[in-house]
Amino acid sequence: MADIRTTITELITGLGTLGYETLYDAIAARPKEMVSVSPETWDLLQQAYDGGGWSTDFEQAWSNGQEFAHAQAGLRNRRPIIIEWKGSHRAPGDEVAPIDLRIDHVYLISCKYLSKIMINASPSHLFRRLLKGGHGVRGEDWYQAVAGTEYQELYEKVVSYLGCSDLPSNVSDLNQEQRKLIAQGIPRIWPKSVLSCYQNLANVVAYRTAKLWQEVLTSTNESETMLWRILRMGSAPYFILGTSATAPLRLRVATPWDWRLKFRLSHFECHPQKGDQPRVGWSTSIKDLHSDTLHIVEGHVEIRWSHGRFSGNPEAKVYLDTPHVKVPGYFPLR
């Protein structure tokens, strides 16, 4: 089961396309068109609606579904025959687009409510393989791979702070139980005796990762195709329905084919950034072929432990810092 807020926003977005007079009527009807929703999930939805604590999420998602129902690029006032909800299960294949709803086997919808995260992948998949193929496997210990000396120094400081004499001398020899012990023993805010060592690790990881990423991007074509993957552009167009910090988010996402008809990538640049985590910034300049306008799109990647400090290999979370509505290839829903 997805978390309650995600469940609400995704299912109510779908319900909003069905033409019911009110949100209350739509939930009460438990429409047969919503084929992949269990009775237990309907109960949960009803309880959340009755409780009143999620009213903003209900209202925003309902409005987005209604807008999609009326839009010329959407359903054009046609009532859906079938609405399929992915829920919390992982996609079985190598899917580019983060699809949450599928309407009439054709309309693909990604529900994005106040989220700037584009991709969560292993660092090696992002920085070495440029997101080619399926992602999600954690892969190598990235801190060990790009900053082994600094990682070992941090580990020794942590062992000294914890006072654990039975831990191995080398960080690469830790077993899973020992990793959990360290993760549980380190306070949320790094101790003063450890902090400078961690900051050094973060800076070195960011610098070396940015340098490696830039070196792997050997051509403009390579950079362009990787940008499409970051922006989650695939062989089929789909729609983003959600909210940003300032307004509803209602967009049609182009395919690379569509994108190439209107835009060209001028450059893709990587650079280390300061942050609480090892952080790599990325920026692009994109030329509009019809107007000669140059668009700048920026984002960053945070490289962080996946299950607590020293517990689980690091993951790479890719963020889009430029508002979605200003990204070339993300077209307003009309």
Could you explain the architecture of this structure?
α1 runs parallel beside α4 (about 55-70) and α7 (about 150-160) runs antiparallel to α9 (about 190-215). The chain has helices spanning about 5-15, 25-30, 40-50, 55-70, 125-130, 140-145, 150-160, 175-185, 190-215, 220-230, 255-260, and strands at about 85, 100-105, 105-115, 115-120, 240-245, 250-255, 265-275, 280-290, 295-305, 315-320, 330. With about 325 residues, it is of the alpha+beta class. The chain is built from eleven helices and eleven strands. It has a six-stranded mixed β-sheet. It has two domains: about 5-115, no CATH class; about 120-330, no CATH class. A hairpin with a 4-residue loop joins β5 and β6 (about 250-255).
Give a quick set of tags describing it.
five-stranded antiparallel sheet, 22% strand, alpha+beta, 2 domains, 334 residues
